[in-house]
Amino acid sequence: MSWLNKLMVQIMPVIPKSFIRLVSKHYIAGESLEDGIQKVYELNDRGYLATMDVLGESITNKQDTEKPLRLYRELIQEIGKHPGLSTGISVKLTQLGLDIDKEFCWDNFQQIIELSEESDLFVRIDMEDSAVTSDTLDIFERSLGRYANVGIVIQAYLHRSEDDLKRLMGLDANVRLCKGIYREPADIAYQGKEEIRRNFLLLGKMYLDAGIYLAIATHDQFLLDHFRTYIDNKNIASDQYEYQALLGVPIDHILQSFIENGSNVRIYIPFGEDWYAYSSRRLKENPDIAGYVIRDFFKKSDNKL
Ligand code: FDA
Q1: Catalytic one of 176, 197, 266, 282
Q2: Are the CB atoms for 293 and 23 separated by under 8 Å?
Q3: 260 shares its domain with 295
Q4: Residue 208 pLDDT > 90
Q5: One domain, residues 11 and 111
Q6: Does any ligand 1 atom lie closer than 6 A to the CB of residue 5?
Q7: Does the CB atom of residue 218 touch ligand 1 within 6 A?
Q8: Are residues 61 and 207 in the same domain?
Q9: Of 27, 7, 8, 1, nearest to 292 (Cα)?
């Protein structure tokens, strides 16, 4: 973690919420379902696929899961009304009660996955911090036995990920590979940029070589260049992998070149009222955003998704 990121983590509690709100405008489609759908249409028009996420996480009271469940139901139904839309959905299990009771969460998740299956919609389970990695994988693996429309996320910074990925390989699981966003201790997670990159490459190539579908989720130019060359050299078909990026990260020019090259690129589109935690994480991850936000007062960036 750079000194700027460390500083950002320390001062986050005193950053005014109004500033975080400005940050959120970069990374979030808007507060309403209509804002989210509108953003998917815009990105589909430019050749991107999408995955939609209803913002919210870490619910600690069973009753509070009713709201995200309702919002996901509405989202799935709304997507069903727009047959031309190319999108899946992404879900955080702590939003459905994983921190409270795993069986309760499983029941909630089943409601989402069943409704999605009826609409032929793919559901990706996001990966959260290491306190819930095992439970998240358990729920995913349980759902794999019953539903075909489900995928998971593996974080390259965790030491355990190689073993997890090998097991998932045996299950033919659809995996999104990312670096990992949460702060994790050195006894369970790689800390240095180079070692995380090395593990990302190791895991990604292992999965691609096995011929199992992989979503490569990174904005790191080094990794993107490396995977592009690897995929070209090995003649890996475009229905075996996709690239993924977060809404608002300024790498449109690279992603457009991937699309022109015949690759699929999916954008993660969060929307909803609970923008604070997600936007704070983006700010900690990349303090440069503070600069983008200030710059945006004066002009628009042309390279933004
Ligand atoms: P890195 O952080 O090194 O960034 C590479 C470059 O990209 C930076 O130098 C910067 O220029 C630019 N950049 C990166 N982030 C930026 C930002 N927010 N704003 C502006 N520029 C930025 N994590 C997790 O733990 N669980 C999950 O389920 C997911 N899901 C997920 C889905 C998708 C589609 C993506 C792309 C990412 C995730 N992540 C995630 C987040 C992931 O773990 C990681 O934290 C971020 O992608 C940042 O890491 P990079 O690989 O982009 O590299």
Answers
A1: 176
A2: yes
A3: no
A4: yes
A5: no
A6: no
A7: yes
A8: yes
A9: 27
Same domain, yes or no: 266 and 229: yes
Give the distance (Å) from ligand 1 centre to CA of residue 285: 8
Return d(Cα 162, Cα 96) in angstroms, integer: 27
Q: Residue 39 and residue 15: Cα distance in Å, rounded?
A: 28
Quote the number of domains for the chain: 2
**CATH classification of the domain holding 107:** 3.20.20.220
Residue 214 has pLDDT above 70, yes or no: yes
Ligand 1 center–CA 244 separation, angstroms = 10
- Residue 34 pLDDT more than 50? yes
- The arithmetic mean of pLDDT across residues 56-76, rounded, is 92
Q: Provide the whole-model pTM.
A: 0.91
User: According to the model, what pLDDT value does residue 299 have?
Assistant: 45
Higher-pLDDT residue of 171 and 60 is: 171
Co-location of 277 and 298 in the same domain: yes
124 catalytic per annotation: no
Query: Does residue 181's CB lie within 6 angstroms of at least one atom of ligand 1?
Result: yes
Query: pLDDT-based confidence at 26, cuts 50/70/90?
Result: confident
Give the atom of ligand 1 at the shortest distance from the alpha carbon of 26: 19
CB 175 within 8 A of CB 214: yes
Active site residue 176: yes
Task: Look up the domain containing 292 and give its range.
Answer: 1-28+273-305
Which residue in 126, 164, 252, 274 is the catalytic one?
126
221 & 134 share domain: yes
d(CA 35, CA 13): 28
Is any ligand 1 atom within 6 A of the Cβ of residue 219?
Answer: yes
